[in-house]
Amino acid sequence: MAAHPLPKDYEFISQIGEGTYGTVSKCSHRGQLLAVKRIKMDSSSKGVPATTLREVAILKALNAKQRELVEQGKLEDLTQANVVNLLDVVYDLSNIFLVFEYCHVDLDQYLKHNVLSPYQIKRFMYQLLQGLSLVHKNEILHRDIKPNNILLAFPGDAGDRLTANASLTTPNPDADHCVLKITDFGLARSYGINVTSISANVVSLWYRAPELVLASKTYSTAVDMWSMGCIMYFLANKRALFQVRKDADLLQLAFSYFYVDSSSVSDLVSLPNWNMYVGENQVIDLGTLNAPGRKPREVDINIDDVGKDLFYKLLMLNPSKRISCDDALLHPWFDDLRKG
């Protein structure tokens, strides 16, 4: 029996996750495995939360674009799409249920029990960039790219073998064929028409771009690209690059790795929180960073030199210099995947 309400004719199998929003359950409906996200109605306004309405609208728009790609022959079918598919929206008096295609595991959980081969790291990044490219082409910022918001769907019965094939030393060959899907658009929003100011209080800290820490209100798709650089490190090293507790620590570490000279931060100096963190007697002292002979700390990412070039382009401190999604997909590191 389900621990929480479900739509009629949906059979509860197990709980996948729980948060302030509600719960996610693995369910069966007419013989199909599904993931059902239950969100409580907003009692104060007696309606559906605005964030949920926005998430549904964004997912429906992106899923429609994915269907167009299938119709155009550019995508085999929707199971191969890199943005999760929202299949239905069901209401009752107290809840709204978002019904999604079922995926076996999120990236965070998968890498707790598995390692990736160099090919798998590259393939995972390529798929995520393809999904994010669709998001950005439709003038949407995800604003919460992190391992928990990346799902893995395995073909056939490979998902049933995940536990048996788990290894911290040998890559699972089934991961050569899984499909990665970007999910959780609860913080996403359109940035196209009449948007002059947007909240900087987004993105989980370990994946947050410097311009967000510095309280930019007019940021761009570059915030998602910074997060992708952090994901690239996570794929290669099985841990987060910025394991910090507060914004100041994140900035300090980011500057130690990626600050070369004053031109590295020309986009950032005018942001509201710059003087809060940068200056004499602050957590970041440009005098020290600009000292003769000083070089950035080297990042110990476990990928080849061509991959490192992409990594550093994703993590440029200046958002205007950060590589775009489409340019990243054309990077030489992916040459073998594009030819394949």
From TrEMBL:
InterPro entries per the UniProt record, alphabetical: CDK, Kinase-like_dom_sf, Prot_kinase_dom, Protein_kinase_ATP_BS, Ser/Thr_kinase_AS
Presence of the UniProt keyword ATP-binding in the record: yes
Gene3D superfamilies (UniProt xref)? Phosphorylase Kinase, domain 1 (3.30.200.20), Transferase(Phosphotransferase) domain 1 (1.10.510.10)
Q: Does the keyword Ubl conjugation apply?
A: no
The Gene Ontology CC terms held by the record are: cytoplasm; nucleus
Key words of the record: ATP-binding, Kinase, Nucleotide-binding, Serine/threonine-protein kinase, Transferase
- Which residues are in the Protein kinase domain? 10-334
A molecular function (GO) held by this record is: cyclin-dependent protein serine/threonine kinase activity
Kindly give the Pfam families that the UniProt entry links to this protein. Answer: Pkinase
| PANTHER family tied to this protein | CELL DIVISION PROTEIN KINASE, CYCLIN-DEPENDENT KINASE 5
Protein name (record): Kinase/ CMGC CDK
